[in-house]
């Protein structure tokens, strides 16, 4: 299973699909910014420290990249709702449109890869992956709060 997960992560991290998408966009975007934009769209508003943890990058790098997304008008940064000292990022309408385009492109790719799968197989895979992801997120929350030993 570990090998399969590494293969999936490796495939989804390859530059080719993102490069093709950027070529079709009127606003070119550095490839490293795409995963951040999608995560901010999904989890935003989100603080830069939390975003850096989610994407596995250095805080200073993510801060610089979020600033670039802000300059491009894809996100806005503002004081956090709960803690005014925390700078949170949230997608703009333009950012949401771009994140939606990324989602559509990736869904088309997965659709091609699963063209010979039945609807039931697709549903089962989606259900099991969501369950697995929920378990991983639960484990992370426990680790973060010191509940797991």
UniProtKB/TrEMBL annotation:
SMART domains: HTH_MARR (SM00347). Residues 2-134 form the HTH marR-type domain. PANTHER family: MARR-FAMILY TRANSCRIPTIONAL REGULATOR, TRANSCRIPTIONAL REGULATOR, MARR FAMILY. This is MarR family transcriptional regulator.
């Amino acid at each position: 299973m570990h090998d399969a997960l590494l293969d999936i992560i490796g495939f989804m991290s390859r530059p080719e699909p993102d490069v093709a998408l950027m070529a079709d966009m009127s606003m070119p975007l550095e490839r490293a910014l795409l995963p951040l934009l999608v995560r901010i769209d999904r989890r935003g508003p989100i603080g830069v420290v939390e975003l850096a943890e989610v994407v596995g990058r250095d805080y200073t790098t993510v801060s610089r990249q979020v600033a670039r997304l802000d300059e491009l008008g894809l996100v806005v940064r503002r004081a956090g709702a709960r803690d005014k000292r925390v700078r949170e990022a949230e997608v703009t309408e333009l950012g949401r449109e771009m994140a939606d385009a990324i989602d559509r492109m990736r869904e088309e790719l997965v659709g091609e890869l699963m063209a010979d799968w039945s609807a039931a197989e697709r549903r089962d895979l989606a259900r099991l992956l969501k369950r697995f992801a929920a378990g991983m997120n639960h484990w992370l929350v426990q680790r973060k709060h010191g509940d797991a030993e």
